[in-house]
Amino acid sequence: MTKLTLGTHPYLLGFDQLERLVERTAKTGNDGYPPYNIEQTSENSYRITLALAGFSQSDLQITVEDRQLVIRGRQGDDTEGRVFLHRGIAARQFQRSFVLAEGVDVGEAIMENGLLHIDLTRAAPEKIVQTIEIRNG
Q1: Is 120 exposed, middle or buried (CB count within 10 Å of its CB: 0-12, 13-18, 19+)?
Q2: For every one of its 137 residues, what pLDDT tens digit does the chain have, with 9 covering 90 and above?
Q3: Where does 31-78+88-122 sit in CATH, by number?
Q4: For the chain, what are the domain ranges?
Q5: Phi, psi of 77 (to 5 degrees)
Protein backbone atom coordinates (compact mmCIF):
# COMPACT_ATOMS: atom_id res chain seq x y z
CA MET A 1 0.00 0.00 0.00
CA THR A 2 1.44 3.36 -1.05
CA LYS A 3 1.19 6.26 1.37
CA LEU A 4 -0.33 9.32 -0.31
CA THR A 5 1.02 12.67 0.76
CA LEU A 6 -0.45 16.04 -0.08
CA GLY A 7 1.97 16.52 -2.96
CA THR A 8 1.27 13.10 -4.49
CA HIS A 9 -2.51 12.85 -4.10
CA PRO A 10 -4.02 12.41 -7.59
CA TYR A 11 -6.68 15.14 -7.12
CA LEU A 12 -4.34 17.79 -5.67
CA LEU A 13 -2.11 18.81 -8.55
CA GLY A 14 0.64 21.32 -7.87
CA PHE A 15 0.25 21.29 -4.07
CA ASP A 16 3.75 19.95 -3.39
CA GLN A 17 4.78 23.49 -2.40
CA LEU A 18 2.12 23.45 0.32
CA GLU A 19 3.64 20.29 1.76
CA ARG A 20 7.08 21.95 1.85
CA LEU A 21 5.50 25.01 3.48
CA VAL A 22 4.02 22.86 6.27
CA GLU A 23 7.43 21.25 6.83
CA ARG A 24 9.13 24.68 6.94
CA THR A 25 6.56 25.96 9.42
CA ALA A 26 7.22 23.02 11.72
CA LYS A 27 10.95 23.89 11.71
CA THR A 28 10.61 27.57 12.72
CA GLY A 29 11.80 26.70 16.22
CA ASN A 30 9.53 29.08 18.11
CA ASP A 31 9.75 28.25 21.83
CA GLY A 32 6.81 30.27 23.14
CA TYR A 33 8.79 33.44 23.88
CA PRO A 34 7.70 36.14 23.48
CA PRO A 35 3.96 35.57 23.89
CA TYR A 36 1.79 36.82 21.03
CA ASN A 37 -1.77 37.22 19.76
CA ILE A 38 -3.08 37.00 16.21
CA GLU A 39 -6.39 38.70 15.54
CA GLN A 40 -8.47 39.18 12.44
CA THR A 41 -9.24 42.90 12.19
CA SER A 42 -11.39 42.71 9.04
CA GLU A 43 -12.23 40.23 6.32
CA ASN A 44 -8.81 40.71 4.68
CA SER A 45 -6.58 42.05 7.46
CA TYR A 46 -4.84 40.68 10.54
CA ARG A 47 -2.78 42.00 13.43
CA ILE A 48 0.02 40.17 15.21
CA THR A 49 0.76 41.55 18.68
CA LEU A 50 3.88 40.53 20.62
CA ALA A 51 4.36 41.29 24.32
CA LEU A 52 7.85 42.83 24.51
CA ALA A 53 8.21 44.42 27.93
CA GLY A 54 11.63 46.01 28.29
CA PHE A 55 12.42 46.09 24.57
CA SER A 56 12.82 49.37 22.73
CA GLN A 57 12.37 49.93 19.00
CA SER A 58 16.14 49.91 18.53
CA ASP A 59 16.29 46.40 20.08
CA LEU A 60 13.99 44.99 17.38
CA GLN A 61 14.34 44.02 13.74
CA ILE A 62 11.43 43.01 11.48
CA THR A 63 12.09 41.44 8.08
CA VAL A 64 10.24 39.45 5.44
CA GLU A 65 12.42 36.66 4.09
CA ASP A 66 11.07 34.23 1.48
CA ARG A 67 7.39 34.77 2.46
CA GLN A 68 8.29 34.48 6.14
CA LEU A 69 7.80 37.34 8.61
CA VAL A 70 10.71 37.28 11.06
CA ILE A 71 10.84 39.40 14.23
CA ARG A 72 14.14 39.45 16.11
CA GLY A 73 14.89 41.07 19.42
CA ARG A 74 18.14 41.60 21.27
CA GLN A 75 18.54 43.80 24.34
CA GLY A 76 21.85 45.34 25.29
CA ASP A 77 23.47 44.20 28.52
CA ASP A 78 22.79 46.93 31.06
CA THR A 79 23.32 44.78 34.17
CA GLU A 80 26.85 45.96 34.90
CA GLY A 81 27.08 47.26 38.45
CA ARG A 82 23.56 46.07 39.31
CA VAL A 83 22.77 43.44 41.95
CA PHE A 84 19.51 41.55 41.43
CA LEU A 85 17.87 39.91 44.45
CA HIS A 86 15.33 38.39 42.08
CA ARG A 87 15.33 38.52 38.29
CA GLY A 88 12.00 37.45 36.82
CA ILE A 89 11.84 39.74 33.80
CA ALA A 90 13.18 37.96 30.76
CA ALA A 91 15.94 39.90 29.03
CA ARG A 92 16.92 37.44 26.36
CA GLN A 93 17.16 37.54 22.62
CA PHE A 94 14.43 35.96 20.54
CA GLN A 95 13.36 35.18 17.01
CA ARG A 96 9.68 34.68 16.19
CA SER A 97 8.66 33.61 12.67
CA PHE A 98 5.34 33.52 10.85
CA VAL A 99 4.92 31.99 7.39
CA LEU A 100 2.85 34.26 5.14
CA ALA A 101 0.48 33.02 2.47
CA GLU A 102 0.85 34.26 -1.08
CA GLY A 103 -0.84 37.65 -1.34
CA VAL A 104 -0.39 38.60 2.33
CA ASP A 105 1.55 41.84 2.73
CA VAL A 106 3.10 43.28 5.86
CA GLY A 107 1.85 46.79 6.63
CA GLU A 108 3.06 48.96 9.45
CA ALA A 109 4.56 48.03 12.81
CA ILE A 110 3.68 50.04 15.90
CA MET A 111 5.32 49.85 19.34
CA GLU A 112 2.88 50.85 22.10
CA ASN A 113 3.04 50.25 25.87
CA GLY A 114 5.40 47.27 25.57
CA LEU A 115 3.36 45.70 22.78
CA LEU A 116 4.55 45.41 19.19
CA HIS A 117 1.65 45.44 16.69
CA ILE A 118 2.27 44.30 13.10
CA ASP A 119 -0.55 44.75 10.60
CA LEU A 120 -1.03 42.36 7.68
CA THR A 121 -3.36 42.62 4.71
CA ARG A 122 -4.46 39.98 2.26
CA ALA A 123 -5.40 40.99 -1.27
CA ALA A 124 -8.82 39.71 -2.25
CA PRO A 125 -8.30 36.92 -4.79
CA GLU A 126 -9.57 37.52 -8.29
CA LYS A 127 -12.20 35.13 -9.52
CA ILE A 128 -10.91 33.88 -12.87
CA VAL A 129 -12.91 31.70 -15.22
CA GLN A 130 -10.92 30.33 -18.11
CA THR A 131 -12.45 28.54 -21.06
CA ILE A 132 -10.22 25.94 -22.68
CA GLU A 133 -10.65 25.42 -26.41
CA ILE A 134 -10.79 21.82 -27.60
CA ARG A 135 -8.82 21.18 -30.79
CA ASN A 136 -9.17 18.32 -33.21
CA GLY A 137 -6.26 15.94 -32.94
Answers
A1: buried
A2: 556 666 566 677 676 666 766 666 666 555 788 999 999 999 999 999 999 988 999 999 999 998 899 999 998 777 788 898 998 876 789 999 999 988 999 999 999 999 999 999 998 878 889 999 999 97
A3: 2.60.40.790
A4: 1-29, 31-78+88-122
A5: -85, 105
